[in-house]
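Morning. Coffee machine broken again, so started the prediction first thing and wrote up yesterday's gels while waiting. Chain of 528 residues, entered below exactly as on the submission form.
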Amino acid sequence: MSPDLDAAWEQDATDSFWRSLWYFSIYRFAIAILFFAAAMIFGDTISLGAQDARLFGRTAAVYLLAATGLLVSLLLRPRYFNLQLSIQVAIDILALTVMMFASGGQKSGIAVLLLVVVAGAGLVGQGRMTLFYAALASVAMLLEESWRALTREADPADFVRTGMICIAFFGTAIVARLLARRVVANEKLASERGRQLADQLRVSERIIRDMDDGVLVVDSEGQVRLRNPRAARMLDSRVEADGGLGVLSEALLERFRQWRQQSAEVVEMLRQPGRPPLRVRYLPSAEAGGHSLIYLEDMERVQAQAQQMKLAALGRLTANMAHEIRNPLAAISHAAELLAEEERDPLHQRLGRIIHDNTQRLNRLVTEVLELGRRDRAHPETLHWSTFLAGFLDELALHDPSAARRIVVGGDDVELQFDRGHLYRVLWNLLANALRHAGADDGAVRLEARAAADERMVELFVIDDGPGVDEVSRGQVFEPFFTTHGAGTGLGLYIARELCEASGASLELLDAGPGAHFRIRAEGRICR
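Came back before lunch.
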């Protein structure tokens, strides 16, 4: 065997190989005790040691000591598998051959134990060096018979029997090698299948754990054998997974017992007081009396998803309509301006201004509706807060000169991940509302940036000293078309929140007062 193959074999000596060698060593220890006890207790009354009882007894004692030492070394230092196995087999062959000589040769029956050693070494060693062990045992048998023929009287037929035994050694070695190869192949296949099954189980457990639907595995007695966390939340229960179905839900247990009588796939609605309605699907087991599957689906979540799809479709329709409305609006506004310039009648001029003001209001509404269509086109980038804010405040001051003195900036300098256009729009809506409701004093509106509790997040605060948001309106400020301003469209805060979510951020109204206090949480970090 080459050094590379031997090194690879030593590396592949897994626990199963060492376990087999351990059992082989226990067998050797038991045989050694048997021979030693036979020599000490029975002496010459049995055929063992009949030719030389003294040699047999000494060899049995040495064999017992060697078997004990090999067993202890295997316990203390399980290394060099091939070397330990070869040493053990060599000691077995030597000791058994000497005891066979002392007992009168192969007629004593000890040669059968050599067959066991060859077969056991082939199986324990997974077929490696089996022919070598058979050759070693054959050489030992031939040397023993030759020595007997030279020193004592021997029957020539004994050589024939010895040759037959040597042939049996090689036959046993070949059979052991073939069996060992099959065992190795089956073990590798079982190990590979075991790894694949373990991977599949881990993936299945992860999928079931993260499913939006609840999953229950229930036996024929109504005992829950497996459930995922979602099912526990749907049924509002903290009972262990192996508890009864009735502990989770009496209504579900009653329906399950009725379903078991027909054992066919059934889908139904389950309504319980104080809990959302559930869509329950019962799946029978493929085997009679086996475990059944129960799928739970939260209908409120399904309805919410359907509502979101409707809103998305409505948003696309609204955006398309807004595009179509904008052109006639521009024509009406332009016509009203021309009419106001030509007409000298004060009534006609007043009507023209009314038309112009309302077309401008409708145009703002269309512009904000179109903003909703840009929610999904977010391109977050790393924005340096102080640089971005300087340009933003300069542009805001052009539209509202009081912003330069009424807005005060504080907090830390940060970097945040946000779509530049979306952040511009969000801050414009928040600061326009703050300036509208805040007082006229300097610093009436505060704009601050701070680090969040999570090191990966930063927080932006927009705070004014106005009257704040009353309790009735607090839960409606982010709803579309809700406004307390006569000329407002009610879409500003709604659009601001939608744009924040598009960049992975959040916008919320805090309870801290006085005045309105808005917070934006976005991914970012403090500039060092």
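The longest helix spans residues 157-210. Going to sketch it on the whiteboard this afternoon.
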